[in-house]
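sry for the spam today, last one i promise. struct tokens for design, 96 residues
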């Protein structure tokens, strides 16, 4: 399956694994293409507030919790935060 088709089917793409889940113990940026429609930045965190993943989601995709549903159980992620685009480039993260 082509990478781009996979991203469209899920409605999101992970762009970075943090040190909490990477084998190297440091943040690792993934080599992925981000479709133009994926304009909502998000991150996934565990119940201690440790961030595990960063990514982008299609704001028109009907499953807002898809990133959490897909990675939550496997990695212990319980919170999904979205970057508040209305607050500008340095916008605040909002928990969904």
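last one done:
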């Amino acid at each position: 399956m082509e990478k781009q088709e996979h991203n469209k089917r899920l409605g999101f793409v992970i762009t970075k694994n943090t040190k909490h889940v990477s084998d190297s113990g440091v943040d690792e940026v993934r080599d992925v293409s981000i479709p133009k429609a994926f304009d909502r930045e998000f991150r996934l965190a565990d119940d201690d507030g440790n961030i595990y993943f960063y990514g982008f989601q299609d704001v028109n995709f009907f499953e807002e919790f898809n990133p959490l549903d897909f990675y939550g159980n496997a990695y212990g992620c319980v919170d999904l935060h979205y970057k508040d685009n209305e607050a500008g480039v340095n916008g605040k993260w909002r928990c969904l």
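Helices lie at 3-10, 66-75. ok im logging off now
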